[in-house]
Amino acid sequence: MSIDLTFPVPPFGLSPAPVFTLAPVEGAEGLFALSGGDARLYLLDAAVHLPDYAPELTDEQAATIGLGDPADAMLLVVANPGADGTTVNLLAPVVVHARTAVGAQFILEDQDLPLRAELARR
């Protein structure tokens, strides 16, 4: 089931669009395609693939999407498939407010997280 999302600022690499669509990739648990306009990003659900990943948003970042309760956050990371495996961007997650379908990609400050972390096979 696809979800239409609103982004106050489009994710890096995507042009502004009135609505972005988050759609699950069939046969790949926790993998989504985020599309808007002519571009697409692949996102992994951190709860499924990176259960120990716990970045901290600033109050300002959380307010950008109206997030008051961390339990309402859907945490996604950009996946970059390559010939040598897949890397994920842990420094700039996409966070979606699950109740309002408003999302944003945030650059995390003062957190020692990699831009290209190798994704371990499950």
Can you put this structure into words, describing what you see?
By secondary structure, the chain is mainly beta. Strands 1, 2, 3, 4, 5, 6, 7 and 8 form an 8-stranded antiparallel sheet that branches. Strand 2 and strand 3 form a beta hairpin. The chain is globular, with a radius of gyration of 14 Å. This is Flagellar assembly protein FliW. It holds the Pfam family FliW. Keywords: Cell projection, Cilium, Flagellum.
Describe the structure concisely for a colleague.
This protein has 122 residues and is mainly beta. Helices cover 8% and strands 41% of the residues.
List keywords for this structure.
cell projection, single chain, 2 helices, 8-stranded antiparallel beta sheet, about 120 residues, mainly beta
Order of helices and strands: EEEEHHEEEE
Low-confidence runs (pLDDT<50, min 5 residues)? none
Q: In this structure, how is the largest beta sheet organized?
A: 8 strands, antiparallel
* Distance between the first and last residues' Cα: 24 Å
- Approximate shape: globular
Number of strands: 8
Question: Layout of helices and strands, plus pairs?
Answer:
Elements: E1 3-5, E2 20-24, E3 31-36, E4 39-45, H1 46-49, H2 59-64, E5 73-82, E6 85-97, E7 102-105, E8 117-118
